[in-house]
Structures are given as structure tokens and as C-alpha cells.
Amino acid sequence: MKDLYENPLNTRYSSKEMSHIFSDDFKFTLWRKLWIALAESEMELGLNITKEQINEMKKYVSDINYDVAAAREKEVRHDVMAHVYAYGEQAKSAKPIIHLGATSCFVTDNAEVIVIDNALRLVQKKLVAVMDKLASFAEKYKGLPILGYTHLQPAQLTTLGKRACLWLQDLLLDYESMSDILRKVRLRGVKGTTGTQASFLDLFGDGNKVDELEKKVVSKMGYKEAYPVTGQTYPRKFDYNVLSVLSQIAQSAYKFANDLRILQSFKELEEPFEKSQIGSSAMAYKRNPMRSERICSLARYVISLPMNEAITAGTQWLERTLDDSANKRITIAQAFLAVDGILNIYNNVADGLVVYEKVIEKHIMAELPFMATENIIMECVKHGGDRQELHEHIRVNSMESGKRVKSGLDNDLIERLKKDELFASVKDELDNMLVPSAYIGRAKEQVERFLSDYIQPILNEHSKDLDFKAELKV
Fold first, then answer.
1. Structural contact between residues 231 and 313, judged by C-beta atoms closer than 8 angstroms
2. 124-143 burial, b for 16+ CB within 10 Å, e for fewer?
3. Cα–Cα nearest to 462, from 126, 117, 15
4. Which residues pair with 146 in a beta bridge?
5. Host H or E run for residue 354
6. Contact at 8 Å (CB) between 190 and 38?
7. DSSP output for 266-300
8. pLDDT surpasses 70 at 325
9. pLDDT (tens digit per residue) in 44-95
10. 72/226 Cα distance (integer angstroms)
11. Residues 330, 145: Cα–Cα separation, whole Å
């Protein structure tokens, strides 16, 4: 029996890769790498730090003595100082120079940015993999007519591939937003307690060396720049922007999954359903869209989170206040874990969509006579008919045929018009007007152009990520 709460985002939904990015091992190893980068840079700029001290720090970079840190934190109530102490207990020769000149946010904030950057790149990989699967689906069904819907009522025909492009365009917008954030990732840098770099100026007595110190540390951690100015923390607006992008992805996935749930109800499309899968505990025949429902459930949670970070960004008093700390530990990690779960499911569903073309055709033919009426009127006018008179006859016949359809019978509008003398001039052409492909406009061409001009360049850029296959835990 398990007596501790286990976060379902880890146990049921997110991948091992994303869970690792938000693990203690990843975070505290980053802390130690940051302390090494700081000490090594300080040594290179002339401070009395030895190569032996640096080497001893490197020896224990991932061998974290959590028990010592936990005991110390219980005593001093400060997580960073507890880990400084624990690190010093291992790298004893380096103990006097670990964290030299730094404030806690040197490790916490720089590490958080690196964690977020890694998480964003994993999300981007999975996002592009979904785009690839939807692009293949759109290409395959680019010319397959399907009923369009406005207000969830039958409207002009579109194609299944064109509808997939609507889902895909949402992801394209998300990809563009994410790419913009990734281009602008900056570390907090080496700024000192309130961002003035006073402690480092005291250490070096030379502002140019302080500037060089920050450049060195940032470079050693694999980045190009730091924020030009900060208080004690990096700008919390960054967190809001990140969660806004995650919310956008969740919105797109929500739209796709809701559409699929509707189409599965129509029996036109279906998410993958495994041989031994149970749809309902009571109704054995059911094939519930549980994966799409799970996407919607997780997406709803993610969509709600940006407001939390907006409040955090707006309530950073002066140079900083600590009421962001506990909040950030929860919201950022859980947003990424949830989006990771969403994209795992989205990849799985998009890779196994089932299409029932005969059902789609049946639904089209039940509505197509109504949609063909404008074309019928125009053909009759070409033969000398009166548009207003024709319109009235079609209106009356459509109402009668509509009653018949709602009674469960076939749509007999075309047969009615064949018997109406007003339509005698086009009687022999009426059946030819019920070809679905004649009513899809430029949908097929739009799919081809969208895929070639907008999607394929992205897929080419990320070709190494396109073989991603999602393994669902449950």
C-alpha cells in the first residue's frame, strides 16, 4: 500500500524525459555546474582559486549528497545554503570559494531558465512530430469531400484534408510563438544580490572584469547572453510568456480533440482503439474517445495557468519578493508535464486516425441536394428561368423534403424537382449535379499549397525529430 501522494502527471501522463528535466537530479546538477562555471571564471580572471579546487568540484558534480543537504536545510531553512554546505562537505578544498560573490538566485534562476529551455525544446520536438503526422493525414485526404459545419450545422462541403490543415495551422502558430521564445532565452547571469553586481565589483575592483565574468559564465553554460538588467531575479514576465505558449498548444490540442470527439460521435472518424481496450465498464459495445477526452482534460488545466504567472509577474515588489518561489516550483513544472502528456497523446492519436469514408459519403448525400440548389437555380436561369420563381419552388420543395429527412427517410428533393415543370429544362442534368467533388471549391489546392509553403520547411528543419512514437503509460 502506498501512503504518499504520487503526482499523476508523472505516474500517468508525462514522459520520463520531461519528468527528468524537472527532477531534483537535473536541477541540483545544474546548480553545481553553475558553481563550477562561476569559480572557474573567477579563477581565469585572477582571483585566488586553484585548478585543484575546480577539479575537486567537478569530481562531485552529479554525486549529490542529498541526505547532508536535507539535514542542513532542516537546520538553516535555506535550500541554497544547504546545498552549498553539502557540496563543500564533498569538495572540501573548494569549500571556501563555492558560491563566491553570488546570491541564491545565481543558481536558482539561472538553473530555472536552463530547465525551461530544455523543456521547451522537448515540447517543440513533440509538437513538430504531431505536425508531421497531421501533414501526412492532410495529404492523404486532401481531396476527400466531407460535410463542413458552421454552428455545428451542415454547411458547404470541405475536404477532410482541409479540415486537418485547420488543426495543423493552429500548431503552426504555436510553433512560431515557441520559436520566438527559444530565440530569446537569456540567463539571469552574474548580477549579485539586487542586480547591481556590487559583490563582484568588490571582488575584482574592475567593472570590465565583472562584465567579462558574466560573459564567461554564460558561455560556459552554453548560452550567448544574459538579461542586460535584473533585480534579484530574471524577469518573471518570461515565465508568463512561456506558460502562454504552453496554453496556446493546449488550446490547439483541445480544439483538435473536441472536433475528433464530435466526428467520432458522427462515426466519420475515430481515434485508435486497441484490441483489448474497454470503452465502458457497463456498456461493452462502446468505443469512447478516451484519449481525446484526456487531451481535453489536461488542456483545460494548462489553459488556466498563465493567469497564475501573470499575477506573479505583477507582484514582484521592487527588486523581488519570495512569494513567487513555492508557486513557481508547482506551476511551471506541472504546466510542462501536462503539455508533455497532451502531446504524447496527440502524437498517438494523430498516428492512428481511422476514417470511415462510406459514412462520410452517406452524410454528404443526405445534405447535398440542399447544397446543390444554388447551382440548380443558376442552370435554370441560363435556360431562361425566373430566379425568384425558381427560388420559391425550391424553398417549398426543400421544406417538404426536410420534413421527410427528419422522419428518417431519404432526401427526395431531386426527385421532387424532376417532377416540377419549372425545372424541366435541367431535368436530365440534376443527377450530375450531385457529385460531391464539385462542391469543395479550392480545398484540395489550399491543402497542397499550405503543406508545401508553410509546413514542409519546418519538417525539413526538424527531420531528425519526425520518427517520434508516443508510448502511452495508460
1. no
2. bbbbbbbbbbbbbbbbebbb
3. 126
4. 158
5. strand 354-355
6. yes
7. TTSEE----TT--S-SS-TT----HHHHHHHHHHH
8. yes
9. 999 999 999 999 999 999 999 999 999 999 999 999 999 999 999 999 999 9
10. 31
11. 46
DSSP 406: H
pLDDT one-digit tens code per residue, 207-223 = 999 999 999 999 999 99
pLDDT confidence bin for 279, thresholds 50/70/90 = low
> What is the predicted pLDDT for the residue at 327?
85
Output the CA torsion sign for 389, 390, 391, 395.
positive
The DSSP symbol for 398 reads H
- Judge residue 112's burial from the number of C-beta atoms within 10 Å of its C-beta, 0-12 exposed, 13-18 middle, 19 or more buried: buried
What confidence score (pLDDT) does residue 342 get?
Answer: 96
* 401 neighbors 413 (Cβ within 8 angstroms): yes
Write out the DSSP string of 139-194.
HHTTT-EEEEEETTEEEEEEEHHHHHHHHHHHHHHHHHHHHHHHHT--B--S--SS
Euclidean distance between CA atoms 402 and 390, whole angstroms: 18
Query: What are all long-range contacts of 76-84, with beta carbons under 8 Å and residues at least 24 apart?
Result: 78/104, 80/31, 80/104, 80/107, 80/108, 83/28, 83/31, 83/107, 84/35
Cα gap 243→333, rounded to integer Å: 10
Residue 416: its pLDDT value, please? 87
- pLDDT for 143 beyond 60: yes
- Tell me, what's the pLDDT at 356? 96
pLDDT at 281: 46
Closest to 304 (Cα-Cα) out of 268, 278, 341, 338: 338
Residue 349 CA to residue 362 CA, distance in Å, equals 25
Indicate the domain borders of the chain: 373-433
Instruction: Tell me the catalytic residues.
Output: 151, 280
User: Does an H or E element contain 45, and which?
Assistant: none
What's the 3-state SS for 299-311?
A: HHHHHCCHHHHHH
- Alpha-carbon distance of 119 to 350, in angstroms, equals 22
Burial 23-47 (b: 16+ CB within 10 A, else e): eeebbbbbbbbbbbbbbbbbbebeb
> Lowest-pLDDT range, 34-48, 110-124, 321-335?
321-335
* Torsion from C-alpha of 346, 349, 351, 357, nearest 10 degrees: -130
**pLDDT score, position 283:** 47
CA gap 257, 295 in Å, rounded: 7
